[in-house]
Write a sequence for this structure.
């Protein structure tokens, strides 16, 4: 695949590893914001081959992981209502709610359907005029334009059997929260490349300046991640704190204007609770007043839910980079992908799941093929 | 988050007032919404997330990045630092 | 689906409850649909059991039920899977597959032409594999049950003396060979699955592997394990074998053969080909010394043209499968938890 395979080349990766080693003279702690970047790092073994002093702190950029528990419970409540067709991205199916998850209630008879795109959910609504179709609109700024379009089209077509359960989270407030946390150790950010392809990166110079941190807009393929790390380390060694775009083939300073216009119309900023972390002010989007008719939270009666998080789960600390998954006593023992206590062990890009699935609890670096 | 995959726009059409296209991802084709890239043309490359094209790929920039990676090696040799 | 509806069945464009009732309608269905397709002496005697002469030796006996949706997908149908799946299970024990049974559970209302197409696919697959369908059963369930059509096939075959293969027989030092590209079947089915459709030339790789197995034994008798990685993909099969043989496995990601289209489809849906189902591939674990000749024999066979040695059996970390990544790191390939779901993150 063009513009994909080239950025996975093994030999070039080795070159980048050597280059990073060459420019590193001191230990540094970098945070990769996006769960997709964490996944790429752990899956490909990038963390295993970086010089010993470079630490990668895994950020909270996993929308599946941070969707508030209450929102999951609301989703389960709505999906359990008779006649409702509940559509969702595959990622959300196994995220544990207080009691169950979408996969389990699907097994119990709820009509839960996996879709690739919110437009597929719209299609389901058009084809099932007599039934309520609800779409679970989670995600960061990258996914928001797609969800916004679905709502906008539903309104245009006056599809009265379609609604969305929106739980969007925003990256810059999260980065700000991380930098102002008393336990923060992050010295540089690898910013989320695809979020920036939508939003641009005009929000970051202020953050970089205020906290004295280099911010490198980074992609997801192994070479992109390595290049992001390389540039961040060079800045750290030089003592600079600029915003740098290492994902220029996809990201521009202004971002995608038509998408931003749609977002401004369909959504409004709100305070949002991040699962495991707590409330971050003005860190989420909900449907704007103009589109309230399509808001599943208003359409369905889902009040009075009592959330119950596992007391053993330390997802929040993992998501803030305070601990590594392996430092959680439940990791690999009571908490596994098969029986997850929290969302970070469920999502394919949650740090706990990545560590477990790709084997960070065994010392496997010495296993080379002859 | 944000699994976005690069593909090439094969054709563009209107469906119910929305700009759509067929994008080729390494051999497989899927219908994609192009509403957020009003200037994109057939033959251009784009990255697609959940069925929406969110950014046109700047091919020149991509080539420059790959060239930079290539040149890293040359610099290495010059410095005699190849392990 | 080139199947012409025979005259007596044309009165019934769809399957009705009576077709499973044991009366005239059932008999007509057997006589006009199943018998002409499965033509052989045993089935035509129409006894309650098929009576067969079986060569002396160890009998291999396998059964599987097929519930795939949709019934027809690029490159195949439930009919192909029903024959090839059981033929392959027998072949993985080193057996020469001989006879199959076929039990149908059909949903009332299924178009006769659909059933005809499925049976025709079974006829063709059985002929290619060199097996006979000697006995069967048909039941019809009420509309709303049965998903169109479910099929169970059971099969018997005979294992020639000297062949000792089994999942517990892998030894450290053995070579791990896969017969061709992985993930074709699963992605072919995914491409027509509602909500995820995409246009592609990916076709299911459904096919009988008994010929390839014979070619493998022809090359060497140091064959330790044979397995066809269906549900759960290559990863699941290798994990199971590693566990039962109490050995580790070290693979090389670069060596895994994957068709570019399958890779692209997996990228799009966020899936890993190593966990995607195959229906015409096998993994062979053979002694290191035999690897070269086995690989050569596989590559010379139509079902093994893209065979690759993908790794080695090791003593370290028994039960665990690991792989060297393309960029030089090492990753574990764990057992899959449940079905792999498409993802956006």
């Amino acid at each position: 695949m063009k513009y994909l395979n080239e950025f996975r080349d093994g030999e070039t990766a080795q070159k980048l590893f050597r280059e990073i080693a060459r420019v590193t003279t001191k230990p540094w702690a970098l945070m990769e914001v996006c769960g997709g970047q964490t996944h790429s790092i752990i899956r490909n073994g990038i963390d295993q081959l970086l010089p010993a002093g470079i630490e990668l702190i895994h950020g909270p950029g996993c929308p599946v992981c941070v969707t508030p528990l209450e929102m999951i419970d609301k989703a389960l409540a709505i999906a359990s209502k008779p006649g409702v067709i509940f559509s969702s991205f595959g990622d959300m199916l196994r995220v544990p709610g207080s009691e169950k998850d979408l996969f389990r209630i699907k097994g119990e008879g709820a009509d839960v359907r996996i879709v690739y795109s919110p437009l597929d959910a719209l299609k389901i609504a058009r084809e099932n005029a007599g039934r309520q179709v609800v779409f679970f609109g989670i995600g960061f700024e990258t996914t928001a334009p797609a969800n916004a379009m679905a709502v906008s089209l539903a309104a245009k077509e006056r599809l009265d059997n379609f609604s969305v359960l929106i739980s969007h989270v925003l990256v810059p407030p999260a980065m700000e929260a991380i930098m102002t946390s008393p336990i923060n150790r992050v010295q540089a950010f690898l910013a989320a490349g695809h979020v920036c392809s939508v939003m641009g990166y005009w929000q970051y110079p202020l953050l970089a300046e205020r906290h004295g941190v280099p911010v490198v807009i980074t992609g997801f393929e192994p070479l992109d991640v390595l290049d992001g790390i390389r540039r961040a380390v060079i800045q750290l060694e030089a003592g600079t704190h600029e915003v740098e775009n290492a994902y220029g083939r996809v990201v521009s300073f202004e971002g995608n204007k038509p998408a931003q216009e749609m977002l401004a119309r369909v959504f409004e900023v709100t305070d949002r609770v991040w699962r495991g972390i707590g409330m971050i002010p003005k860190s989420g989007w909900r449907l704007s007043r103009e589109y309230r008719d399509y808001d599943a939270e208003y359409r369905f009666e889902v009040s009075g839910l009592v959330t119950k998080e596992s007391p053993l789960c330390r997802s929040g600390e993992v998501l803030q980079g305070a601990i590594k998954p392996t430092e959680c006593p439940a990791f690999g023992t009571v908490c596994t992908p098969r029986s997850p206590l929290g969302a970070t062990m469920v999502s394919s890009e949650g740090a706990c799941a990545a560590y477990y699935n790709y084997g960070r609890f065994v010392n496997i670096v010495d296993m080379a093929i002859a | 988050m944000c699994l976005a995959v690069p593909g090439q726009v094969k054709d563009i059409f209107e469906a119910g007032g929305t700009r759509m296209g067929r994008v080729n991802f390494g051999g497989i084709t899927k219908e994609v919404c192009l509403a957020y890239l009003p200037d994109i043309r057939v033959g251009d490359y784009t990255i697609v997330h959940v069925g929406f094209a969110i950014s046109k790929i700047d091919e020149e920039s991509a080539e420059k990045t790959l060239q930079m990676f290539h040149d890293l090696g040359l610099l290495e040799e010059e410095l005699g630092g190849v392990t | 689906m080139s199947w012409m509806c025979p005259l007596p069945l044309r009165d019934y464009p769809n399957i009705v409850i009576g077709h499973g009732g044991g009366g005239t309608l059932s008999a007509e269905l057997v006589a006009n649909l199943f018998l002409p397709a499965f033509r052989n002496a045993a089935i035509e005697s129409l006894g309650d059991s098929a009576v067969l002469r079986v060569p002396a030796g160890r009998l291999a006996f396998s059964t599987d039920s097929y519930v795939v949706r949709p019934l027809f997908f690029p490159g195949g149908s439930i009919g192909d899977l029903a024959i090839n799946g059981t033929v392959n299970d027998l072949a993985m024990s080193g057996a020469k597959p001989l006879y199959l049974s076929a039990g149908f559970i059909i949903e009332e209302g299924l178009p006769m032409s659909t059933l005809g197409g499925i049976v025709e696919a079974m006829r063709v697959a059985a002929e290619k594999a060199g097996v006979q369908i000697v006995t069967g059963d048909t039941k019809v369930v009420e509309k709303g049950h049965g998903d169109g059509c479910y099929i169970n096939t059971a099969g018997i075959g005979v294992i020639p003396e000297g062949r000792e293969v089994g999942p517990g027989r892998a030894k450290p030092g053995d070579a791990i060979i896969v017969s061709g590209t992985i993930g074709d079947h699963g992605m072919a089915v995914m491409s027509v699955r509602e909500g995820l459709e995409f246009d592609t030339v990916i076709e299911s790789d459904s096919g009988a592997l008994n010929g390839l197995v014979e070619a493998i034994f022809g090359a060497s008798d140091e064959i330790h394990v044979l397995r066809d990685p269906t549900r759960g993909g290559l990863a699941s099969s290798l994990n199971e074998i590693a566990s039962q043989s109490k050995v580790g496995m070290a693979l090389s990601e670069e060596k895994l053969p994957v068709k570019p289209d399958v890779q692209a489809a997996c990228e799009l849906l966020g899936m890993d080909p190593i966990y995607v189902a195959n229906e015409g591939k096998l993994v062979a674990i053979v002694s290191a010394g035999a690897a070269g000749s086995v690989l050569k024999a596989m590559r010379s066979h139509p079902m093994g043209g893209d065979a690759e040695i993908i790794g080695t059996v090791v003593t370290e970390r028994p039960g665990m499968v690991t792989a060297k990544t393309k960029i030089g790191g090492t990753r574990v390939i764990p057992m899959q938890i449940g079905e792999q779901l498409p993802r956006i993150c």
